[in-house]
Design brief:
- The protein has a domain of 29 residues.
- The chain is built from 3 helices and no strands.
- The chain is rod-shaped, with a radius of gyration of 28 Å.
């Protein structure tokens, strides 16, 4: 009997509406976050590539001496 009482009061429509309003995510926000993350990843990949090319160049110069 107490389980019925808890169940009825747990699933009230007001709580469900509040939860649904809070759980909505705007697609534009997600897309902008995705674009920002892509830009950051692209920058870090470029920095890593430049570091690798620089290391190879320095190593080549040292070997040629």
């Amino acid at each position: 009997m107490s389980a019925d009482y808890k169940f009825k009061h747990h699933n009230s429509s007001e709580e469900n509406q509040d939860f649904q309003n809070k759980s909505k995510v705007k697609l534009t926000d997600l897309l902008s976050r995705l674009n920002q993350e892509k830009k950051r990843e692209r920058k870090s990949n470029i920095a890593l590539s430049v570091a690798a090319v620089s290391a190879v160049t320095v190593f080549g110069i040292i070997l040629s001496l």
